[in-house]
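[agent] plan:
  1. take the single chain provided in the ticket
  2. run structure prediction with default settings
  3. attach structure tokens to the ticket
  4. add a short note for the reviewer (M.T.)
[agent] executing step 1
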Amino acid sequence: MDVRPGDVLLMKKQHPCGSNQMFVIRSGMDFKLKCMGCSREFMISRGKIEKNIKKIVRDSEG
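[agent] step 2 finished; step 3 output follows
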């Protein structure tokens, strides 16, 4: 799955604050994400994130 820093991920499940949008700060074996609702930053493994992504939103292509 092609997830790059700067992407916004729409997730299948909501964060406890109620938002389902996550901003990608860093990608690799682990992802560093920032919740778009409460601005909390957290690290999570690639396997857990990839199965819960509904859609990837990119501002600029190319």
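[agent] step 4 note for reviewer: Helices lie at 46-50.
[agent] ticket updated
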